[in-house]
Amino acid sequence: xxxxxxxxxxxxxxxxxxxxxxxxxxxxxxxxxxxxxxxxxxxxxxxxxxxxxxxxxxxxxxxxxxxxxxxxxxxxxxxxxxxxxxxxxxxxxxxxxxxxxxxxxxxxxxxxxxxxxxxxxxxxxxxxxxxxxxxxxxxxxxxxxxxxxxxxxxxxxxxxxxxxxxxxxxxxxxxxxxxxxxxxxxxxxxxxxxxxxxxxxxxxxxxxxxxxxxxxxxxxxxxxxxxxxxxxxxxxxxxxxxxxxxxxxxxxxxxxxxxxxxxxxxxxxxxxxxxxxxxxxxxxxxxxxxxxxxxxxxxxxxxxxxxxxxxxxxxxxxxxxxxxxxxxxxxxxxxxxxxxxxxxxxxxxxxxxxxxxxxxxxxxxxxxxxxxxxxxxxxxxxxxxxxxxxxxxxxxxxxxxxxxxxxxxxxxxxxxxxxxxxxxxxxxxxxxxxxxxxxxxxxxxxxxxxxxxxxxxxxxxxxxxxxxxxxxxxxxxxxxxxxxxxxxxxxxxxxxxxxxxxxxxxxxxxxxxxxxxxxxxxxxxxxxxxxxxxxxxxxxxxxxxxxxxxxxxxxxxxxxxxxxx
Length: 565
Hints:
InterPro entries: DNA_methylase_N4/N6, DNA_methylase_N6_adenine_CS, N4/N6-MTase_EcoPI_Mod-like, SAM-dependent_MTases_sf. The chain has 15 helices and 31 strands.
C-alpha cells in the first residue's frame, strides 16, 4: 500500500497575504524607563509595539529571525460568538488561515532551541494541533499541557462543566530543545523524614519489590524481630541476596519502628536531585486560575478589569521551563500585558504586540507600575522584584505606498527621508545603518554591499561620482526617483559597481500596500454572503485532502487524520 500524506485543508487555504514589511517608529513620549538602575541585571531595551500583530510580526522578521527563545500566545479562542454572520465552515476557515499566517512567521523568529506555547480551548485545540504539525513538523510537537483554570464546577453547565484549557507546546527543532526542570515543592520535600535519626539526614521509604519473578531474587530476608519474609506471590526482590545484605549492613533498609515490617529501601533527600521535570497537568493551586487572574487585574486596573487575563503564576511557570535570564520572549497577542510584566520581573527580555486600545489603557500603566516597583501582586514577592528596567514603545509606520488624487501609486508623503531609507532597506534585505562619514551609505547587506536611497533625479555625472567613491571592491544599490543621461542597460555596463532602481516602481509588485488590519477580529473582515444551498453538493466543504486521492466530507468523516496511511 502506498503512503499518502494527509493534511488539514480549509476554504481559502491557498490564499496568502503579501505582507508589507513595515518599519517601526518609536514614540519616546510613551516609552518608559526607571529613573536609575536598581540592579546590574536591569533590562531597558524591551519593546511594546502598537499595531496589527501580523504586520508587526513581519516587521520583526528581518531583525529577530532565529533570536526569540520563547513565544507565548493567547489567541482568540474562536468560540463562535463573534462569527454570527458566518456559516460554521467559513468561521473555522477564517480562523485557521489567520493563525497559519502568524505561526509561519513565529517559527522563523524562534531560535533553533526555542519553543512556542499556545493557550486554547476545545473549540479549536485539535485543529490547531494539526495546524502546528503542518507548520512546525509533527516531530516537533512536544505535548499538550492541561491547565486547571477553575477550582469549582459551574452549576448551570448544560453538559459537563469545563475546568481546563489546553497549552499546546511546539519546538522549533526538537533535537535542539532543552527545557528547564522545576524545583521540588515544599509538599514534595516534606515526604522526607528521619524516623531513625540517621546521620545522613531525612529519607523516605521506597519499595524493595519488583512486579515480576526473577528466581535469583526470590529468597528469605530475616527481620530484626526474628521473622523471615519472602517476596509476595508474583514478585521478587529488587536486589540480589548479596546486595540486600550490603544494604542492611549500611543501614539503608528500614524494617519499621518495631523491626517487624516488610523491608523498605531508604532514599535520602541528599542523594536525589533538587529538581523534577514539569508534568503535563498544571493544578490551579500551583499556577493560578481564572479568578486569581481577575483579582490581579482588578488590583491593577480597578473597575477596568481586562476580560480574559491569565494569572502571573501560569506565565511564570512557562518562562521558568522554557527560558533562562536574559532570553528573549515574544507575545503577539499581549492582551493586558501579563507576559511582559512577568518576563520583566523574571529578568527576561521581551517583545509584546497589541492592536487594541488597551495597549494604552492597560499595558502601559501596568508596565510602569512594574518598572517603578509599585506592583506588589502576582509573582513580585516570589521573585523578589523591586523595580527597574524599561521599554521602548513603537507603532507600525503607515503603508509606504499610497495612491495620489489620480489613483497613481506614490511614496507616502508622511515618510521623511530617513524613514524612506529605512523602509527600502527592509524591503531590499539590507540592514538600516546610516554611516556618519559616507553620505551615500544608508545600509548594508555585507561588509562590501551597500544601499543609497534618494528622492532626487540623478544625472550621469552624479552616478559617475558615486561609482568613483564606492570603488571597485564594493557595490552600491541606488534607489532614486529617476536617472537621466543614460539607459539602465548602459549604466550597468558603464558602472558595474552600481545597481540602479527607480522609486516607487521597484517595489510596487512586492506587497499588499495600504492593508492595515489583518486582525482576528471578525468585525474587520468582509461580510460573507450565505445563500441557501439547494442540495448537499452546494454545502461548503472543508476537509481532509489526500494527495493523489479524493476529498472526504469533513462533516461526516472528520476534518483530518493524523500521520500517513
